[in-house]
Amino acid sequence: IDHLVCDQTITGCSRCGPMTPDMCCDIHHPLTFPLFDTLVPQPPKLPNHSRLPNYSMGPKEYELCEALEDWREEKMAEKYGRSHLIDISPSIIMSDLILDRLVNCAHHKKIKTIEDFRKETHWLATDKYEPKVLAIIHRIIPVKVVSVALTNTPLQCRPLSTVANPPRGGNVALPSTVSAVKKMNRCSACQQEGHN
Questions:
Q1: What stretches of the chain show up as alpha helix (H) in DSSP?
Q2: Cys-Cys crosslink for 3: which of 17, 51, 67, 69, Cβ 3.0 to 4.6 Å?
Q3: What is the pTM of this model?
Q4: For residue 173, what is the enclosing H or E element?
Q5: Is the separation of the CB atoms in 103 and 61 below 8 Å?
Q6: CA-CA distance, 100 to 106, in Å (whole number)?
């Protein structure tokens, strides 16, 4: 504030006023540490999972929930032993959040394939346990899986002469090629065609 006593302007006296340094100190020069700059790679963005509406669980959902709980307890005891199952809980194998998500997705028929399983759960142990868990889900709540072979097969073209039931005279009537005339819109205010 002393630099404002001799000069009443906003900046004050340039001789008495504090000077702004170019750098904060001798060791913090901007070009001193470029060797330590690190680029942290960003992990790939996971696909968004589906938003599921609320529902009330039925007998199939309760059965699936119990089957998945039994499965994760079995895997926990197999991998870490019964003592850890009792002391720690089977959430190490599959968390309650993942289990609930699986039951909800199974109810809404969102998990049909391995890709759906990965997308909906983002479970880290998917590669290790996914086939068995998917089998449990489909055993209790079956899902129709559309065969890829049926959806990718092109339709066969048949000549018109191979019609299943031709008329008695042997002549097959061909459809006429009448061009469809598009109906023009009529304005409700001025009653003219071409605009609304």
A1: 3-6, 59-80, 82-87, 96-107, 114-121, 126-140, 148-152
A2: 17
A3: 0.54
A4: none
A5: yes
A6: 10
The number of C-alpha atoms within 13 Å of 125 and in the hemisphere containing its C-beta is 14
**Where on the phi/psi map is residue 122: left (φ > 0), alpha (ψ -120 to 50), or beta?**
left
- Separation CA 153–CA 68 (nearest Å): 37
Query: Could you give the CA distance from residue 72 to residue 91 in angstroms, rounded to a whole number?
Result: 8
Q: How many CB atoms lie within 10 A of CB 103?
A: 21
In this structure, what DSSP letter does residue 108 have? T
- Hey, which residues does 186 pair with through a beta bridge? 193
Q: Please give the Cα distance from 89 to 95 (Å, whole number).
A: 10
**Contact call for residues 108 and 50 (beta carbons, < 8 A):** yes
CB 140 within 8 A of CB 64: yes
